[in-house]
């Protein structure tokens, strides 16, 4: 047996060395230590004096060699209620869900009817690569009830309890008809779907209607702020940056560390991180909605690429007046490259509104400036020909 | 033989006439070591089984297939009875129907049924797809077939996962793409009725040992979803199909090896090119001799395939042949090349051309040896022994139609194995072919796959994965934090994705690649395992590759790259290394009066010391240098053979040394024949006085860390190996020893052949 262990040890070590060479495996080890010893004062205690509903008590700080006693091992649910006014929400969570509006919020599937039907969610996982060996150990879900947002965080205290954890999550999700996430289409939902199969052999249907805010957020803000990570948007859009935060890539190791040490202080910053993510998701949704509504009433965003992105969104929903306003705004505020990009669509709008002169003038100016690719110039020229013909025809009928 | 034939395409001369001319040509006759005629065989038929869906038998009848060959009917019966089956019959015997029919039948009766086809290469998968789709369409049942491999566009992957009745893939994709994401394949795994393992004989050695572990993982996943598929395997003829299949399926497997397919008459010709340098044992290049034969056949309009052993020789032969058939007298597409590295569309076009006859000749690596559908050609020319009897029959089988005469030529190179085979054609003709060996319990491989398995589904505390030590391995990985035990199950608890970066095709991803920078471009032309690299790729070494001399300019040991450039020099280099073998554990041992044999676990330490520059023909030492590469260690299994004091009684020490080195070379050269492995899979070390046996000892060790089972076989088959060595030495045409037998006499000692013969004469 000892001999076997020695041989496995050799194999495992060699394998580790190989991985560490190629990747950042070596870097991972050190920061985990600092994370685990750091006692975050604003962690669990400060941020969440929450109601912990749990089917069994964990042994905090206990050695991992003494496994949890009860046969249905525990998971916990932390709950927190926040007033809508405290979140600064203007549209999301208030009143009915305007189907034309949610179409701008990265909707896939049918639009939800009421904001109360939408479950906002964000997961923390044991790895970023996906696949059947990646677990969801924490999921934060939030929904509207009355004048409050109710945030509930399900935390899995041991991997052995996954079945109960996922079963409870299924119950939590069931009443809702739609979900909202930040990059959930490609990350959170596939992983949750995998866990549903692995733990309870069940299908997941909540994302038949799904608002993935990553895409509209990107269109609105990437050009302006470079990154559109939630953290960046908190700083730039919400003006409410994070002070202390666990970097996402450290979270899996923090959880493995917690599994072995059972020290709540290790997991508290992760809970805090997740709560922030869910709340920011709700607030960002509101900001995107506000930008859409403002543009609809003629106040297109000052930032030209954002106005352009909204214009295209309005084209898709068939809100042509709003689209026109946004194109116009983007055209006047944008640089020449952006102008060339939107000119043909804008010209179509002008043409539809009968402003042929203006459309022609715009296209000719842009061509004179020598903008665009040769393909674009070809398109622009044929558009000009078409506009000229139409104008002549118009003049002819007038006389 | 008169290579410059004046016959103009498309004037046709029958194959019969060409063979007749060749047989009577005195120059050619000199080279022939055997001219074998295999008589035609009649078919043995059987009825369609009564349970077979009526639509299927009706379709087959419409296609003119009125009954099955007996082996097809046998396979249908066993698979229908739910028994794992391995069908062992030669190329073009209608193996595909042995699995297509049960699968189509199952799906015809139950549209939820699913099947998984596993092919060793992507190209084969493509071929099967077309075939199966055509059949299903004719039968008129809804059967969706997809290939799922690295080339599958992400957009269609979701559809394949849920809707594909038959998913065609390869072991590598199963390993990294399907099993770790099995929750996306619920429909497939819940309803998996059949798993088809085609070309089972290719799953041997390290690759096979890995595949056997992937199949263990596959069965775990199936069990998770409650399915217990029947495995249908097909294999070329090997010595131990039942054993190999059982190691892969880990259950009882029925062997079906009575071939019911007919075969036309066939002529097999063994050709040994003439000797051009007696003392060095150098013969005329097999490539030239092969070219002459192929050109003669092609010029007469005989559709011909030529097999070479490497990509480079494929290209060379293609160039030579094209030079023989210049345009515009000859059509430009008369001869095509075919090898890995060609675009898939290009390969499909060549395959089509071969089927419809517009391509008259093809030069290929062993890529076309497997069951790619190119129809049956009239003649095959094998440049060099393909390495195994099984491959030889596969390649020769590429020529051979059901009714007509066909011919196959095997042209030997100077390698010991080739020389043995061409001088003992019965080795190919009479003997049962090699055994396919795997060792799925090789701890190195097993631990890797156990990790992948834990990623896929947590392990139960008592669960067994191959070895009985599974709980031990699990608890160790738990202590290391790679797994995490909770609620009696071991969960994967690391961020990494264990299947990623883990290749099934090599045991260690540790190879030194050879980068040719002649002409200023960087081109990878080969790779050498890290353990063997210091000897051949040290700086200043002359590395021979396909007859070119390349000098190693720089060896980047850290990044495992050797940069070489073509040179023209009149010397070669020979590196000396000091190899120490420490026996860690002796598993078994058997002594006879002359030889002692044993096998066990060893630690091989090798350090390359110096290299010598030796002139080409006179082998004079014209310089030397030191090699600075750290010592290499390899823990593996080894076979060893020691000479008793009695065997060399009264011999001077020098003679013992010479005999030992010569016997070592001889055994090392011939062992691959028994083991169905590549010569590089086996390492050689000799010790005049081994610290373990205290006797002169030859070690033949497995080059894969941990070993894949070669040493145990050599221990069992020592007598056969010695017998083969004796035969080969008797018939080698050299006087005093050459690289084709005991090694060059000029380097070892003028009496080397005689000394080895003396040793072998004693039993």
SSE string of chain A, helices as H and strands as E = HHHEEHHEEEEHEHEHHHHHHHHH
Count the E strands of chain B. Answer: 32
Give the CA-based shape of chain B. Answer: globular
Superfamily at the CATH H level of the largest domain in chain A? Ribonuclease H-like superfamily/Ribonuclease H
Task: Give the % helix of chain A.
Answer: 40-55%
Biggest sheet character of chain B: 7 strands, mixed
What structural class results from the helix and strand content of chain B? alpha/beta
Mean pLDDT of chain A: 82
What is the count of DSSP helices of chain A, taking H or I runs of 4+ residues? 16
Parts with pLDDT < 50 across at least 5 consecutive residues of chain B:
1-11
Number of domains of chain A: 3
What Rg of chain A is obtained from the alpha carbons, in whole angstroms?
27 Å
When the domains of chain B are counted, the total is 4
Estimated radius of gyration of chain B: 27 Å
Determine the mean pLDDT of chain B.
86
CATH architecture classification name of the largest domain in chain B: 3-Layer(aba) Sandwich
Q: Which fold does the CATH topology of the largest domain in chain B refer to?
A: Rossmann fold
CATH H-tier superfamily of the largest domain in chain B: P-loop containing nucleotide triphosphate hydrolases
Q: Helix segment count of chain B?
A: 25
Biggest sheet of chain B, strands in spatial order? 1-11-18-17-14-16-15
**Largest sheet geometry of chain A:** 8 strands, mixed
């Amino acid at each position: 047996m000892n001999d076997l262990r020695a041989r496995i040890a050799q194999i495992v070590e060699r394998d580790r060395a190989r991985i560490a060479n190629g990747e950042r495996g070596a870097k991972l080890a050190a920061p985990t230590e600092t994370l685990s010893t750091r006692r975050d004062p604003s962690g669990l205690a400060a941020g969440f004096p929450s109601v912990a509903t749990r089917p069994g008590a964990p042994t905090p700080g206990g050695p991992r060699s003494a496994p949890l006693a009860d046969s249905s091992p525990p998971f916990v649910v932390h709950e927190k209620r926040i007033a809508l006014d405290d979140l600064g929400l203007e549209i999301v969570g208030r009143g009915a869900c305007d189907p034309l509006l949610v179409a701008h919020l990265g909707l896939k599937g049918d639009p939800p009817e009421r904001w109360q039907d939408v479950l906002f969610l964000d997961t923390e996982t044991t790895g970023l690569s996906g696949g059947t060996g990646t677990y969801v150990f924490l999921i934060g879900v939030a929904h509207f009830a009355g004048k409050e947002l109710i945030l509930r965080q399900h935390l899995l205290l041991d991997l052995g309890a996954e079945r109960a954890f996922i079963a409870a999550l299924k119950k939590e999700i069931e009443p809702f008809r739609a979900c909202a996430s930040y990059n959930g289409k490609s990350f959170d939902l596939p992983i949750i779907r995998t866990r549903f199969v692995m733990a309870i052999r069940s299908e997941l249907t909540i994302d038949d209607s799904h608002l993935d805010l990553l895409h509209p957020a990107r269109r609105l803000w990437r050009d302006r702020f470079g990154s559109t990570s939630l953290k960046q948007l908190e700083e730039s859009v919400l003006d409410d940056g994070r002070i202390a935060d666990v970097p996402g890539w450290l979270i899996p190791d923090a959880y493995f560390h917690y599994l072995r040490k059972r020290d709540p202080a290790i997991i508290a910053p992760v809970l805090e991180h997740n709560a922030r993510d869910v709340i920011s998701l709700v607030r960002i949704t509101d900001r995107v909605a506000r930008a859409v509504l403002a543009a609809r009433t003629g106040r297109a965003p000052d930032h030209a690429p954002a106005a352009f992105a909204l214009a295209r969104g309005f084209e898709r929903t068939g809100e042509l007046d709003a689209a026109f306003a946004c194109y116009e705004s983007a055209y006047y505020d944008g640089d020449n490259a952006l102008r060339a990009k939107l000119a043909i669509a804008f010209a179509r709008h002008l043409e539809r509104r009968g402003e042929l002169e203006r459309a022609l003038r715009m296209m000719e100016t842009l061509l004179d400036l020598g903008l665009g690719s040769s393909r674009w110039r070809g398109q622009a020229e044929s558009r000009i020909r078409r506009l000229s013909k139409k104008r002549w025809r118009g003049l002819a009928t007038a006389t | 033989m008169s290579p410059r034939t004046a016959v103009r395409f498309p004037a046709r001369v029958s194959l019969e006439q060409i063979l007749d001319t060749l047989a009577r040509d005195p120059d050619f006759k000199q080279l022939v070591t055997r001219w074998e005629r295999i008589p035609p065989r009649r078919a043995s038929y059987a009825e369609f089984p009564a349970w077979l869906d009526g639509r299927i038998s009706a379709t087959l009848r419409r296609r003119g297939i009125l009954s099955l060959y007996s082996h097809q009917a046998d396979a249908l019966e066993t698979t229908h009875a739910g028994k794992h089956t391995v069908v062992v019959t030669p190329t073009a015997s209608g193996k595909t129907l042995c699995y297509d029919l049960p699968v189509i039948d199952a799906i015809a009766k139950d549209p939820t049924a699913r099947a998984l086809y596993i092919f060793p290469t992507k190209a084969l998968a493509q071929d099967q797809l077309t075939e199966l789709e055509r059949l299903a369409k004719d039968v008129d049942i809804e059967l969706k077939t997809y290939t799922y491999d690295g080339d599958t566009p992400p957009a269609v992957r979701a559809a394949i996962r849920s809707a594909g009745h038959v998913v065609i893939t390869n072991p590598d994709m199963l390993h990294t793409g399907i099993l770790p994401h099995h929750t996306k394949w619920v429909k497939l795994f819940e309803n998996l009725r059949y798993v088809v393992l085609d070309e089972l004989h290719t799953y041997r050695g390290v690759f096979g040992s890995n595949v056997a572990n992937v199949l263990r993982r596959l069965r775990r996943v199936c069990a998770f979803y409650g399915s217990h598929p029947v495995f249908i395997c097909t294999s070329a003829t090997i010595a131990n199909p039942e054993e190999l299949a059982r190691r892969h399926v880990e259950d009882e497997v029925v062997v079906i090896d009575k071939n019911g397919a007919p075969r036309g008459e066939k002529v097999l010709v063994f050709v040994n090119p003439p000797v051009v340098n007696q003392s060095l044992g150098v013969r005329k290049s097999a490539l030239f001799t092969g070219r002459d034969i192929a050109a003669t056949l092609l010029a007469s309009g005989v559709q011909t395939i030529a097999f070479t052993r490497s990509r480079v020789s494929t290209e060379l032969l293609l160039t030579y042949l094209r030079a023989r058939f210049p345009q515009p007298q000859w059509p430009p597409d008369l001869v095509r090349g075919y090898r890995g590295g060609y675009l898939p569309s290009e390969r499909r076009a060549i395959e089509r051309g071969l089927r419809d006859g517009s391509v008259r000749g093809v030069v290929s690596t062993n890529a076309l040896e497997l069951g790619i559908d190119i129809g049956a050609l009239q003649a095959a020319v094998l440049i060099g022994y393909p390495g195994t009897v099984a491959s030889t029959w596969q390649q020769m089988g590429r020529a051979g139609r059901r009714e007509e005469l066909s011919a196959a030529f095997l042209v030997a190179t100077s390698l010991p194995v080739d020389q043995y085979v061409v001088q003992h054609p019965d080795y190919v003709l009479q003997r049962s072919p090699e055994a396919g060996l795997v060792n799925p319990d090789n701890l190195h491989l097993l631990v890797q796959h156990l990790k992948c398995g834990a990623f896929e589904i947590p392990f139960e505390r008592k669960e067994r994965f191959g070895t009985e030590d599974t709980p031990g391995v699990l608890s160790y990985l738990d202590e290391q934090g790679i797994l995490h035990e909770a609620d009696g199950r071991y969960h994967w608890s690391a961020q990494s994705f264990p299947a990623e970066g883990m290749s099934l095709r090599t045991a260690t991803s540790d190879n030194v690649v050879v980068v040719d920078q002649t002409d200023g471009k960087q081109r990878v032309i080969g790779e050498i395992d890290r353990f063997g690299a210091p000897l051949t790729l040290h700086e200043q070494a002359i590395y021979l590759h396909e007859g070119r001399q390349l000098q190693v300019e720089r060896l980047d040991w850290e990044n495992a790259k050797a940069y070489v450039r073509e040179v023209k020099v009149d010397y070669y280099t020979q590196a000396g290394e000091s190899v120490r073998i420490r026996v860690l554990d002796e598993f078994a041992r058997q002594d006879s009066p002359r030889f002692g044999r044993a096998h066990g676990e060893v630690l091989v330490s090798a350090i390359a010391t110096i290299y010598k520059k030796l002139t080409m023909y006179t082998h004079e030492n014209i310089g030397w240098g030191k090699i600075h590469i750290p010592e290499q260690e390899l823990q593996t299994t080894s076979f060893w053979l020691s000479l008793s004091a009695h065997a060399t009684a009264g011999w001077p020490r020098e003679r013992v040394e010479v005999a030992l080195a010569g016997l070592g070379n001889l055994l090392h050269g011939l062992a691959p024949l028994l083991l169905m492995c590549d010569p590089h899979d086996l390492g050689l070390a000799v010790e005049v006085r081994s610290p373990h046996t205290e006797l002169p000892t030859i070690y033949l060790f497995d080059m894969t860390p941990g070993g894949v089972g070669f040493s145990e076989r050599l221990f069992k088959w020592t007598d056969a190996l010695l017998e083969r060595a004796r035969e080969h030495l008797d018939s080698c045409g050299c006087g005093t020893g050459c690289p084709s037998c005991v090694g060059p006499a000029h380097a070892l000692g003028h009496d080397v052949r005689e000394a080895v013969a003396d040793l072998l004469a004693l039993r």
